[in-house]
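Feature request, filed as a ticket because there's no other form

It would be nice if the structure record came with a short human-readable summary line next to the tokens. Right now we just get the raw output. Example of a typical job, pasted below so the devs can see what we mean:
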Amino acid sequence: RSRGRLCNSDQKGIDMKINRLLLLSLILLSVITSCKPVLREFQPDNKSLFNITFSYPSEWEWREEVPYDEMDPSEEIPPSELFRVESQSIEIQVFQPINPQTKMQEWMDGYLGVVTPMLVSDSTIQIDGYDARWFTVLYPPQTSEKGFIQEVVYLLIDDRFYTIELNSWEPVNKHLQKEFEEMVNSIKVIR
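Raw output as currently delivered:
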């Protein structure tokens, strides 16, 4: 009989350990899932020049702004729209010039002409089947001790092109940079 009690007692001890382990696992799972940001989907209006969707953290508040174009005053400004995240240095601008491939290449060449000495990386990536160029530039410190980092993606889709930017003081907020990368990787073309 004493052996039976030991076995019964041992079984209760094992059951308690399993219950504790299960409870600890559930707590850990809830902590891990609560750390992941809730995502929203950017959906443009029907009249918008944007023909892409993408996911972004729900705390980002996008606002439409008047597009800025650094263009020669004698040059015609193409139709354009600009959205910027209010609390972050992230923006997406779409342009619809008459010849988008030529215009995008001209703008990329002009950009590279200025930033080449500070260019950290230049890579070609795929976004929903379209080639895109991703540049990372580190501007050296000027009036402060901090440098400035800029990530710029140029994406050509049919009759328009996009510039997608992250601008940040050094050191880069790694969390924000990861969210930016995830947003870019989530881009889908509305067909």
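Something like this underneath would help us a lot:
The mean pLDDT is 84.
The longest strand covers residues 130-139.
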